[in-house]
Fold:
Amino acid sequence: MSEQLGLFGEVEDQEAKKPVTAVSGPRVQYFDLETQKSAEEVGGWGNIHKMGLAVGVIWDSLDREFFTYEEKDALQLVEKLRTADLVVGFNVIGFDYTVLQPYSDFDLQEINTFDMLIDVKKNLGFRLSLNHLAQHTLNAKKSADGLVSLKWYKEGKINKIIQYCRQDVEITRDLYLFGEKHGFVRYQSRSGNPLELKVDWKTANLT
Structure:
């Protein structure tokens, strides 16, 4: 089996890879990461920068594939993000970038980034979780949660964290693309009423 370490991350089986049709347009990278420690373990949410990178995952719209990074690959993760025309995430500016920043001298805030959570809060006046929006918009939900991921890290089950993080990236990507195509996402009121939130998620306007 011919294996080769890609420029930006994990080992891939080159012989097993299927040919990918060339894709044009802006390079959009959908990004999420999982941490080594909880807020409680680092003294509260004011210390997100101390949580440590467990796993980071990117799905690249031009490469049409996932890229996976562990802590030892943090600099490669930053370099990959810097190749994007647009990074899309959910709470990526307030959380993911804050976790990742200690690993790099480059200011991650300089990357062109669209944070769906910020946009949703701006339009609604309150926050909704990725899981809530995914359930009501895509009929999909996360397979686990951050607390389970922290437990897996302590148990050394990195592959489980990678699978979980990949699913989060898929949900992030699919939610953004749904909003871009349809101009809305769905959510539920506290009383249980189904509602639609109009969104203007046009990649052409964000890059």
Observations:
- The first strand starts at residue 3 and ends at 5.
